[in-house]
Structure prediction request, 588 residues.
Amino acid sequence: MAYKHVEFPQQGQRLSIENGRLVIPDHPILAYVEGDGIGPDIMRACLRVWDAAIEQAYGGKRKVHWMELYMGGKAAEKYDGNVFPDEVKEALQQIIVSIKGPLTTPVGGGFRSLNVALRQDLDLYACVRPVRYYPGVPSPMRQPEFVDVVIFRENTEDVYAGIEYQAGSTEAKRVERFLKDEMGAEFFNDSGIGVKPISAFGSKRLVRKAIQYALDHDRESVTLVHKGNIQKYTEGAFRNWGYEVAREEFGDRTITEADLYSIYGGKQPKDKVVIKDRIADIMFQLMLLRPNEFDVIATTNLNGDYLSDAIAAEVGGVGIAPGANMADFVAVFEATHGTAPKYANQDKVNPGSLLFSGVMMFEYLGWNEVADLITFAYPEVIQRKIVTYDFARLMDGATEVSTSQFADALIDQIKAKVDIEARRREWFTAVQSGREEREARRMAEPFVEMRASGRTPHTVADIMSHIRTVKPGVFVDQVMHLMREHGISSVVVEPGRDGLWAIMTQRDIIGRIIHANRSPAHVKVEEIATKPLVTVPVDMSLQECASRMVESHIRRVVVEQSGLPVGIVSDTDLFRIVDELGWEPVVL
Ligand code: NAP
Prediction:
């Protein structure tokens, strides 16, 4: 493409993608978009801090060659009123990694928000928001240091898909007629109507990215946050697809929370990430009461929107919360707050959000030394109470400084050679001791912990016991030893010549061996096992499972996945889970 106002720097090299990996040269070209309102103030300050940290970390061996791209007001001046020119879109894709300030969103119809346009046009499907506490930052929490999560919010679908019809419009009336007359739906006349599409494709690529992040960054868990108890086929489906990706694509590197308790007795196995899920409304409560139970969060668009701001507010508000919008490789890092027009060009506001978006960007590039220098220097400055106006008004005895003075103080701190290794060790020790403490609690009192941490099993996969299989031809007495040794009341028998799986339970032994007066040493397991199995799919709800047992007059069902038995749920399991964790009737 022949560019009009896009100029690539003379020096530096572009990032590239080779064999499915991002290749980062030592002198990469990265793009920045200043943005509107306070954007130029914070971008100017941050570029200075980032460059100083790079110089400090690598002494000239590595250096970013920045190029400016234009969106919003500055673009309109250069491109005859066009706020998001095609050549900028093209350049953002070519450059792969960029960072932007906030952009004005005109209010009212007829104009897509620039941020929405950017996400949609570049298909930046994951909005990633790390939220953690920095010592010294004012917070309303009692123990803000427990907050350290990375939120992956789906960015392209849900009620944000833009399928919405105004009350009383011709379109709304047509949709209303269709829903009522053809689908039997009931709702008030003349409603505004919005549609919430959630797809397997959209959900899975988001959860895949979240799990990969957790594995790459030694995180303990990924929590799927959803409202599946009410919206079964959208939010509930998101949750089920999330577990499916974990099972099918990361089977050897992930376990479910059910496995954590039932197989591992609450002890987290090394090198595995726990996949769990929580209902969205409970999650807000849990992030206030037990934030350190959560690590990486993957959620749908609307939940993610609310949750990211709420969690950010726990540890310093939007002024310092960073973010990024990402596709598989292309990533646009961005300040998460708006343009705060009343403060534009006053050199006044907090550059923290953009600053830490830059830290995320350097982590994404693998330049962890730069990220660490800024991360560890920042609290030193804040703890000396050198802060911008927003923090100053929340602190006693603070020295209020401008945006650029804050950048100066931070650069001085970066140059003062913080002992990064010592800080890293401190941080690692704190993370480790938190993990050990939680693990000890899970192992000592599993049900107390499950309940307190908001675990609510929904599907058979959440409560099933993993099966033990035996081969046909084995004698019953041998299987009895096995059952006693493992404390289990049934085994699944692999298929014989007829190709059918079977199940043998303690009741079969009582009825078909002892009651029938036969010797377990002379009867083969397949002779008394029951077939065919009554199976249910892994994502069947507990309520449906109970109905299946009642209707089929059976006391246990075999859980099946991809045609193979993977677990067993008995009436005792259902009874125990309801007794221990309570039972909320399902809203249908
Ligand atoms: P805003 O620009 O985020 O400002 C709201 C308030 O948040 C400010 O008045 C200020 O609070 C505080 N604030 C924001 N950034 C700050 C910073 N860096 N340091 C300290 N305090 C900060 O939200 P808005 O006024 O609702 O939106 C203004 C424009 O920004 C709109 O056009 C909106 O669409 C757009 N916007 C863009 C993005 C984006 O580009 N990603 C995101 C959100 C909004 P005090 O008044 O209490 O000092």
Notes: The CA atoms of residues 450 and 566 lie 23 Å apart. Residues 38, 102-105, 115, 318-319, 334, 337-340, 349-350, 353, 390 surround NAP (CB under 6 Å). The first strand starts at residue 16 and ends at 18. The mean pLDDT is 91.
